[in-house]
Every structure is written in C-alpha cells, then in structure tokens.
Amino acid sequence: MPVAIITGASKGLGHALAEALAERGWDLVLDARTAQVLQETAAALGKHGTRVEALPGDVTIAEHRIALVAAAARLGGVDLLVNNASALGAEPLVPLEDLALDGLRRALEVNVVAALGLIQEALPLLRASTAGTVIDISSDAAAEAYETWGGYGASKAALDHLSAVLAEEEPGLRVWAVDPGDMNTDLYAAAVPGDEDPRPAPSSVVPGFLRLLDERPASGRYAAPSLVGAR
Question: What is the pTM of this model?
C-alpha cells in the first residue's frame, strides 16, 4: 500500500485529506501538536482498515521530523508528503506595522523551514518511490496582497518558491504547491475571528487533490477548487 505523511492532520484540511486517502487504502503517518485530537483522528481512520501512525509533536523540532519519516519507513516508505501544518504569525492577524517579529519568525519556521526540513529528511524515500510526490499547502495570500495577511502570505510565497525550485532539482518527483482556496477552518477562525461569512468545508476541495494524485500533472502551482468537478 502507498504511504503518506500528512502534517497538521488532526482537523481541517489535513484531516479531510487523511480520510480520503484512508478510504483509498493508503497507510498514513499523521502529525499534529494536540495529542488527544490526533489520537481521536487516528482511531476514526482505523475503521478503513489501513495502518495509521499518529505522532503528536511540533514540526519545527528536527527529532520529530526524523520520527515521522522513520514511522513511514516502517510502513514501507514515503510515496506522498503533505506539508499542511501552518502558523499564522499572529492570531488574530494584524497589519505589518503591528506584526511582532517573533510571530513572523514563527510563521517562517513552521511554514517554510520545517517544511524543507521534512522534505530533506524524506527525500531518499520519496526518490525510491515509483510515484514520489510532495504537496505543499499554499494560500491565495501567497499570490495576492490582502491587508493583515502580510506575514502569513510572505511565508506561503516563500514556500511556493521553495516548491518550484525543488521541482527543478528533483525532476523524478511531482512537487505541487496547492492553494486550497477559502475554507471553514480553525486556522481561518483564528486569523479573522468574528467573520461569519459562509465558507466551504475542507472536504469540498479534497477531490481536487485526489485528481492531482490520479492524473499526476507536471510539477507546479495549482488551485484545488479549479480541479474539482467533471474530468
């Protein structure tokens, strides 16, 4: 069975992707910072009959990244790495004038540095896979300028560029930076508390990710909502 590592997998998009892959028979290594919620997620996914390793921890810690890849190796390798764990830099979001530099550092550390660290750790196993794939979760804020989204957007723009360079350096892999679009998630609620405008559930864009995995287009940047629908 193929094996995927998904960070930030206890809820939101990470949980939705894990559910969809488990339904397809994938074995999973899941990460999140909240141990109880992660264990509950893993237990629920176990109903699909696949193997699920749940490792609570912080992706900015090298030992935790090593443990994630080691767990995947025990399951058979790494066919897919999804860098989904994210930090906003400020909760709620604030203008750049008020953005604490430590908050910006945290966003860069989680969204870029830790993502690269996990890619580096997993690369030998990704290269050994017949369909090695990296999905870096991007954001519309990486490409567009929105008030108060400067720190988070800058970190995601950096992740986009890292993904593009990795694709050039690793032509044997698929490397996709994927913008999931506007979603109803805890991350958005923390970013803009009090915004009650309706937003789609993360599960609504999962078919776009599955389409990427099925059709395996060239490495690049994709918007998941545009991939949802008739093929």
Answer: 0.97
